[in-house]
Design a protein that fits this description.
The chain is mainly beta. Helix content is 10%, strand content 41%. It has 1 helix and 10 strands, in the order ββββββββββα. Strands 1, 2, 3, 4, 5, 6, 7, 8, 9 and 10 form a 10-stranded antiparallel beta sheet that branches. The longest helix has 16 residues. It is globular, with a radius of gyration of 14 Å.
């Protein structure tokens, strides 16, 4: 991946695709595709198959998640928010959060970030401690990623 964010700048791109597509996302069970942007301000299309996701993590910058297809859940600020098509969600910088597709439905999102990193870059996110609710509902994802040597913080 391009660690410095020097990606080609596009003016327009279609975003109505449904995944999986693009590259495997770092430390997650999702795929992602760079859409457009310049430097650290950019957008990606990300996709999680049913029951898959990215466990609790942080990013240096803030980002906005826009659901384009499907249904999922955002764990943020001690709350579980349902992700549904047509809604958008704000994640502040360094806020521990997790994103998962519903157990019975995939989810596709646009992620717009002000400190963008390529989807496959390990610098994109840092693992954080999952909530008890996340651990209970999506512990299988966390365990699969641990088995793939994606480190998680220890309680």
């Amino acid at each position: 991946g391009d660690e410095e964010g020097g990606m080609e700048s596009k003016v327009m791109v279609r975003w109505d695709a449904v995944g999986p597509f693009g590259s495997s996302m770092a430390m997650s069970e999702g795929t992602g595709l760079h859409l457009l942007g310049s430097g650290r301000f950019a957008a990606d299309l990300i996709h999680f198959e049913p029951g898959r996701g990215v466990p609790c993590h942080t990013h240096p910058g803030s980002h906005i998640l826009i659901c384009t297809h499907g249904r999922g859940f955002l764990f943020l600020g001690g709350n579980k928010h349902e992700i549904v098509q047509g809604h958008c969600y704000f994640v502040p910088p360094m806020a521990p959060h997790a994103v998962y597709a519903a157990k019975d439905e995939a989810v596709t999102l646009i992620s717009v970030a002000d400190d963008h990193r390529p989807v496959d870059a390990t610098s994109r996110l840092a693992p954080a401690e999952p909530s008890d609710e996340e651990q209970s509902e999506y512990g299988d994802v966390i365990r699969r990623l641990e088995a793939r040597s994606c480190p998680r913080p220890k309680s």
